[in-house]
């Protein structure tokens, strides 16, 4: 995907993936939603999400970076920064 993706585009992509592939109800997916507590994303799901994010960005995101995220907004910020930094 383009490195010029906006945070809104990344959020929309996340909402689609989480609702379609992880069966999270779309209304629960907000920027403030906690991945593990609110959305029931477990460690296996987190790995699958990292793979999906690699497909989106065209490059891997380090698991260490992903360990720092707590909310959907954190993921969006991390992906946006990852795209910005090339």
User: How big a fraction of the residues is strand?
Assistant: under 5%
N-to-C series of helices and strands: HHHH
Uncertain runs with pLDDT below 50, 5 residues or more?
none
Radius of gyration: 12 Å
Total DSSP E strands:
0
Mean pLDDT: 90
Helix content: 40-55%
Structural class call reads mainly alpha
How many strands, which pairing sense, and closed or not: the largest β-sheet? none
Which quaternary structure do these chains form? single chain
Distance between the termini: 12 Å
Q: Total number of helical segments?
A: 4
Question: What's the gist of this structure?
Answer:
With 86 residues, this protein is an all-alpha fold.
Question: What does the secondary structure layout of this molecule look like, with pairings?
Answer:
Blueprint: H1 7-20, H2 43-57, H3 63-67, H4 72-84
Helix pairs in contact: 1-4
Describe the structure.
The chain is mostly helical and 86 residues long. The chain contains 4 helices and no strands. It has helices at 7-20, 43-57, 63-67, 72-84. Helix 1 packs across helix 4 (72-84). The longest helix is centred in the middle third of the chain and has 15 residues, at 43-57. The mean pLDDT is 90.
Defining key terms:
86 residues; mainly alpha; 55% helix
């Amino acid at each position: 995907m383009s490195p010029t993706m906006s945070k809104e585009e990344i959020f929309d992509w996340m909402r689609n993936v989480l609702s379609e592939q992880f069966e999270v109800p779309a209304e629960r997916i907000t920027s403030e939603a906690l991945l593990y507590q609110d959305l029931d994303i477990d460690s296996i799901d987190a790995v699958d999400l990292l793979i999906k994010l690699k497909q989106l960005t065209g490059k891997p995101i380090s698991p260490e970076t992903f360990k720092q995220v707590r909310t959907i907004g954190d993921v969006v910020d991390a992906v946006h920064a990852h795209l910005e930094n090339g």
